[in-house]
C-alpha cells in the first residue's frame, strides 16, 4: 500500500473513532432527558411472568400484539407500527411512566402508562375484557387506541401529543 493510501486510511480510522465517541457521548447525554425508566422496565424479570395470561410475551412486543388481537375483536383500528411509534414517543416503553409536569398533572390528573392516558379518558374508553388498571400495558394500549379511533380515526393518525 502506498504511503498516501496508508495516510488516508489512518485519518479515516481516527475520524470513525472520533465520530463513534461523539455519538456515544450524545446518547449518554440524551438518555436522562427521556423522562422514563430504561427499556429494561418493559422486559420480564425474575418476579414478572414471562408471558401474559393470554400467552403473549410479557414485554412491549407481546403487549402490543395482545392489544391488537383485542382491537381486532372489537373492531378498533390500528397497526403495530402506529402503536409502537406512539408508545416510544410517550413513555419510551415504560408501562409505569407518569407525567407529573404538564397541564393535566397541574389539574391533578397526570398522564399514565405506555400511551400516557389520563384517568377520565381511560375510564371512558376502557375496553371490556381488559384490566381496569391504567398501568396494565394491554389495558392502557387498548383504551388509548379506542380513544384515538374515536378522535382521529386510528392511533396510526396520531403523530404528537393527543
Task: Give a count of the beta strands, DSSP E runs of length 2 or more.
Answer: 0
Average pLDDT: 82
Helix-residue proportion: 40-55%
Strand fraction = under 5%
Quaternary organisation: single chain
Largest sheet: none
State the shape: globular
What is the H/E order?
HHHHHH
Number of continuous helical runs: 6
* Rounded Rg: 21 Å
Low-confidence stretches: 19-44
The structural class is mainly alpha
Straight-line N-to-C gap = 59 Å
Short description:
This protein has 162 residues and is mainly alpha-helical. It contains 6 helices and no strands. The longest helix has 28 residues, at 3-30.
Question: Any key phrases for this structure?
Answer:
6 helices, mainly alpha, 0% strand, 162 residues, 51% helix
Amino acid at each position: 500500500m502506498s504511503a498516501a493510501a496508508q495516510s488516508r486510511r489512518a485519518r479515516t480510522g481516527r475520524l470513525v473513532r472520533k465520530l463513534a465517541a461523539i455519538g456515544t457521548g450524545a446518547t449518554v447525554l440524551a438518555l436522562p432527558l427521556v423522562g422514563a425508566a430504561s427499556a429494561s422496565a418493559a422486559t420480564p424479570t425474575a418476579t414478572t411472568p414471562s408471558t401474559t395470561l393470554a400467552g403473549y410475551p410479557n414485554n412491549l412486543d407481546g403487549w402490543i400484539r395482545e392489544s391488537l388481537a383485542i382491537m381486532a375483536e372489537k373492531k378498533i383500528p390500528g397497526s403495530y407500527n402506529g402503536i409502537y411509534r406512539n408508545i416510544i414517543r410517550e413513555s419510551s416503553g415504560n408501562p409505569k411512566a407518569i407525567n407529573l409536569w404538564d397541564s393535566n398533572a397541574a389539574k391533578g390528573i397526570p398522564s399514565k402508562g405506555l400511551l400516557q392516558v389520563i384517568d377520565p379518558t381511560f375510564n371512558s374508553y376502557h375496553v371490556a375484557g381488559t384490566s381496569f388498571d391504567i398501568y396494565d400495558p394491554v389495558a392502557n394500549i387498548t383504551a388509548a387506541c379506542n380513544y384515538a379511533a374515536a378522535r382521529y380515526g386510528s392511533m396510526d393518525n396520531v403523530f404528537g401529543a393527543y
